[in-house]
């Protein structure tokens, strides 16, 4: 519907008949802008509807995009951490084998090169070579992330190991030289590996990473403590610098384990185990002898004490290595679970993003279709409302014709119209004289037209006076003055003037089909008390009652 010809239609609820208000160009500009039937209104409402869906969609998409953008780097970091953990696992395996080789090599020197110790040392060398080969294979197969130039570090370590072993076999260095050489080589591996792990300490797993690095350092100091103690018991004495080195490594090992215990429940449970406490007690007893720099004991030989010390320290270090494996397994489990959660979050976010990108065009399409349907429905409703307005006006006009204005107004509002008594009113009956004779002479169709023309003439004359037309019955016309609007005593003159006017008007009317036949009227008027009210349900009529009405009817029927 074009905006230039449309008007805003609204229905006002009431207890009475339907009331319809038209709001057109005089309506506020906001209502005109939001009118469905105008092009501008439809455009604005469409934009509002699409925007109302677009803003939440943008918020949800932005939130999901942010979640995905945060989860993707975390997934990459978690994968990086798992690769570092795999590197740390193979590096720790090599370190523990080298630490044991260091202790056996020192023991080999201080034991007088016993064959039994030499065989154990050579067997340990084989384990070291195997561990290094496993490390190299892991690097070649991928899936692990070590520090930069790890291949160079492995090559250098192999060369140094071969060089140190040559000096051990040729006895070109002493036991302390062996310890220093192996320790220097282990430091070049431990330091970058520790940094590698610390760089990966992210999220809720940093405490486990710190615990693992502390335990790894404690194992190294315990290994030095093992090698120095073996030399002490084998040589039966310590110089001041070696004793100082032993005490420092012992303190560092215990301090690091105490620090790691603060960060991990696994370490606290480990140190509370009976086998660990028993091993620590044995190590403490031997350490006390070393720190006192005395060899007083019931052992049969110093080499036997060295073997006991080496065995107890090796058992303790193996327990620490087992602890490292448990920490690594726990860390692997947590990183795996964390990775699964992150990947699930990323997947859900990506699915939601795709769903939102697909949903909003569908929402827009359905919204446009809905707007078109509303537009069509609005047009249809507007057309129906216009027809309803016409019918309402027609009904109102008909009611106003059938009833007095005051009575019609109350009927339209749905109010009850109570019967009313009028002390003074005039009633007039008008009838066509010789009506039966006329019906015989004039055909039926022409008779209807004739009566209708006559009543129109009477209606026109009645409009000139304060008279209300009550009803028409056949050829009889009933009018009243003085009710329902009281007009004092003028009702008598109003009806009398009406009667005189009718007599004058009808003299100029010719009857079709009858030559020289004029209309004659019989008129009866009576004045007095009249009762008026609405009578009937299906076809309610405004009726008059009383002797005055009867008198007027008899005067008309008996008049000339």
Give a description of the structure:
This protein has 560 residues and is α+β, with helices and mostly antiparallel strands. The chain is built from 15 helices and seven strands. It has helices at 29-33, 39-110, 115-141, 150-170, 175-199, 206-235, 240-263, 265-271, 274-292, 302-402, 405-412, 435-441, 444-462, 490-506, 547-558; strands at 8-12, 19-23, 420-432, 468-473, 476-481, 521-535, 541-545. Strands 4-5-3-6-7 form a five-stranded antiparallel beta sheet. Strands 1-2 form a two-stranded antiparallel sheet. A hairpin with a 5-residue loop joins β6 and β7. α4 (150-170) packs antiparallel against α5.
Percentage of β-strand residues: 5-15%
Q: What is the average of the pLDDT values?
A: 76
Apparent shape: rod-shaped
What composes the largest sheet? 5 strands, antiparallel
**Spatial extent as radius of gyration:** 59 Å
The beta-strand count equals: 7
Main location: membrane
GO cellular component, one term: plasma membrane
Subcellular location: Membrane
Protein name: Receptor-type guanylate cyclase gcy-13
Characteristic terms for this protein:
560 residues, alpha+beta, 5-stranded antiparallel β-sheet, two-stranded antiparallel ribbon, 10% strand, disordered N terminus
In short:
The chain crosses the membrane at residues 43-61, 347-368. Helices cover 70% and strands 10% of the residues.
Spell out the blueprint of helices and strands.
Layout: E1 8-12, E2 19-23, H1 29-33, H2 39-110, H3 115-141, H4 150-170, H5 175-199, H6 206-235, H7 240-263, H8 265-271, H9 274-292, H10 302-402, H11 405-412, E3 420-432, H12 435-441, H13 444-462, E4 468-473, E5 476-481, H14 490-506, E6 521-535, E7 541-545, H15 547-558
Antiparallel strand pairs: 1-2, 3-5, 3-6, 4-5, 6-7
Helix pairs in contact: 2-3, 2-5, 2-6, 2-10, 4-5, 5-6, 6-7, 6-10, 7-8, 9-10, 10-11, 13-14
